[in-house]
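INTERNAL AUDIT FORM
Audit reference: QA-55
Scope: verify that the stored structure record matches its stored sequence.
Auditor: D.O.
Record contents follow.
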Amino acid sequence: MTNDEWIYGWHAVRAMIKHDIERIREVFILQGRIDNQAVVEQLTDQGVAVHSTARDKLDRMTNHATHQGIVARVAPQVPKTWAFIDDLIKREQEKTTLLILDGVQDPHNLGACLRTANASGVHAVIVAKDRQAPLSPVARKAAAGAAETTPIVVVTNLARTLDDLKERNVWIYGLAGEATESIYESTLTGAIAFVLGSEGKGLRRLTRERCDVLLRIPMLGEVGSLNVSVATGIVCYERVRQCHGQ
């Protein structure tokens, strides 16, 4: 029980109910809410305890985050392993689309990246074990349910992971502001992985050196860079446009 996790917000909890209800230990719902009776019935039918809870207690449970009146205690998520990625590439082949995050520190950005990855059809997100924001309740809420549906693989050595992907014919595209080639000048088809760096420093040297191509997003105004989650959305949807014509 000490390793249990907490999630909050209706998107995150509903996604957990839909995709992984067996992990839910108990749910706390704001006293007086009657507009989600179907959710309560679904939980109780599965034997999950649902508690009517005062707002101040929910506030304390979430450290005064925007919980939207619902908090759930859940069993720890079993992380995907490298074997999952290996099987994914064999199955999806040229359709394989991966997002690799190299040191994203802000949990809101991590959650937003997961949400964008899910919306744009990314098959899995790979993150480093160290120097990376954890998949915290804050990140899960920002992901709006995507953290419960998008496969996430945590690796110990990101550089070695990139080498392994290249051996499996996955083309590695790193985003860097100083790159000479624009994402709109590159062919983003085939099996690919997009690599985005941390909010302040961008890609680390070893990561940068292992990218097949460095790409930039054109900046036409006065600002010099974009939020990492915004950059993720732009490059992922350029992939969608090129592959699906949408």
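Auditor finding: record pair retrieved intact. The domain at 82-244 is CATH 3.40.1280.10 (Alpha/beta knot).
Action required: none
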